[in-house]
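Incident log, structure service

09:12 report received: a user says their structure output differs between two submissions of the same chain.
09:20 pulled the input from the user's history:
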Amino acid sequence: MTTEANGPLYDLHQVAYDIFRRSLEACSIEAAFDRHLHFEGNVLVRNISPLLPPSRIELNNFKSILVIAIGKAAKPLIETLLSRMSRRKGLRGLCCAPQIPRKRNWRVRYFAGGHPLPDKNSFDAARSALHMLHRARKNTFIFFLISGGGSTMFELPLDPTISLEDTRMFHQALISCGATIAEINTVRKHFSAVKGGRLALAAPNATKLSLLLPDVPLHHLDALASSPTLPDGTTIAQTREILQRYDLLARFPQSVRSFFQRKDLPETPGAKVAHTWASQPHADARMARASAFPISTNADPFGSGSIGFDTLLSSHDLLNAASDRARSLGYEVVIDNTCDEWDYAEAARYLLERFHSLRKEHPLFCLVSGGEVAVKLDGPVGIGGRNQQFALACAFDLARWEGEPLAVFSAGTDGIDGNSTVAGAIADTTTIRRARAYGFDPQASLSQFNACPLFTALGDAVVTGPTGQNLRDLRMLLADQRRPSTK
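09:34 re-ran on a clean worker, output below:
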């Protein structure tokens, strides 16, 4: 950054980066595994919930074990699981991650799936996984390791005549329409051969356990990676309503438009079961987090094998870690997730209003917010993402307070923001002035969704590289008013 070294703004930048880094470290996938499950020889022990005793699964009862990892955290998830399992025959795996690791396990097939749009590797990974699952039998145990990003990294149209190019255009229309992630993934689930529970359906008689690292709200777990292995609670009627509300059919290529206009468009296989489960007395938020989800009746659309899932980590863990770190640095902290999935501009207005009100009461103050904001893209799009867009929108408000030690931080925990190679950005009371001094038009950058060049030039882009994590976004609004204003 180019703000004055050792000044209050510089200190705020350093604090924000420190909180973000420490929060990611606190949300270790390895530690999450240890909390939720461990192995005693070939016995898998699941700590389902403090309300329930551990469950034990004797893996020696199974002839083969499959491990299928999908999403931005697929690599650390599969590596962590395999490092804890005893070596045994009949173990095979598939990993669809952002990149193929240099060090690879010979039992695992690796794919580098496309994001934010699917590519050939996305199709190849889905076909390979389906081939593996179709060969699974009753004596097969399957671990599904699911994290965010899987909706595009792992994809195959339900209609085999739809091309890769048309599939990419379909996904582009969805992510730019301004819909929430739950709405986008409702449509994706009804388009895909590997979403909405269809991946689990490919191995109907096997025993299956899904380990989840959600980048969606916990009450929308079936939106994670568009729900390849959980019963889906959405319906065709909901899909058609979303298509109409955002005028999406007109944006789709003809092959996709024709697909969604079919009168015989099939429901996802788990819709009925998911609705039935959700209506039961135990289906509250605590049990969703506890992850007890057994289904083993003959009516199970996934077949006779039992299904379970564990939520390893969530954005709640991230926000608690950020709050703990900020408090350890002396900050008064408030967590506010009210604006989760709001439009970025509306979220910026809401959080800034709350921030300015609360900071008057505390010399050191940090307002923490998680989840994701929405960006509707209109016209040509530059380089950036929702976090940089949010930070730049906040910068205009902060400019009114130049001389005050205020800053806004927003970054994705996966290390990627939109179509850029950065995680997000940090704005302060000098951002707009400095940007203009560098020859930028901040309002044009905002309206053209082109915030990345501006923040990169200022040295205020948050650069982490792929983190192997994906717990949604972290936003922080910070004030350090222990020093007198320089205004």
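09:41 both user submissions now match this output. Likely a transient worker issue. Closing.
09:42 reviewer note: The chain is about 35% helix and 15% strand. Residues 8-25+316-480 form a domain with the glycerate kinase, domain 1 fold (CATH 3.40.1480.10).
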